Amino acid sequence: THCISSAASDVYKRQTMEEMYCQSCGMPLVKAEDFATNKDGTPMSEYCIYCFKDGSFTGDISMEDMINISLKHMRELFKGDPDFNEQAALIKMRDFFPELKRWKKSL
C-alpha cells in the first residue's frame, strides 16, 4: 500500500493548485487515501475512493440519490454547527452536481 499512497501523492502533486473534487459526490480530494483506484490499483484523481474503486463505480445511483447521500453526510459533519443551513446546502449541490463529470452526461 505504500506504493499506492506515494503514487496517489504524485497524482495529487501533478494537479493544478485549484482544489480537486470527486467528480461524482463533490467531496474535496485532499489526502492520498481519498483518491479512487483504477483496476490495477493505481490512484485515479477524478473520483473519491467511496464512489469509484478498482476501476468502476461503487454503486449505480442517480444524481438526486447522490445529493441525498451527500446531504446526509453533511448533516453528520456539521451537527451542532449553527451556521449550517441544510436548505442552502441542498440548493448549492443541485447547482454544483450537474457540473461534475459523472452527471454531465445524464442531463
State the main characteristics.
globular; alpha+beta; 12% strand; 107 residues; 40% helix
Structural write-up:
This protein is an alpha+beta fold. The chain has 4 helices and 4 strands, in the order H-E-E-E-E-H-H-H. The strands form 2 sheets. Strands 1-2 form a two-stranded antiparallel sheet. Helix 2 runs antiparallel to helix 3 (86-96). The radius of gyration is 15 Å and the shape is globular. Mean pLDDT is 86; it is low at 1-5 and 12-17.
Category by helix and strand content: alpha+beta
Helix tally equals 4
Arithmetic mean of pLDDT: 86
Residues in β-strands, percent: 5-15%
* Series of H and E elements: HEEEEHHH
- Tell me the strand order in the biggest sheet: 1-2
How would you concisely characterize the structure shown here?
The chain has 107 residues and is of the alpha+beta class.
Helix-strand blueprint:
Layout: H1 2-14, E1 35-37, E2 43-48, E3 52-53, E4 56-57, H2 63-77, H3 86-96, H4 101-104
Antiparallel strand pairs: 1-2, 3-4
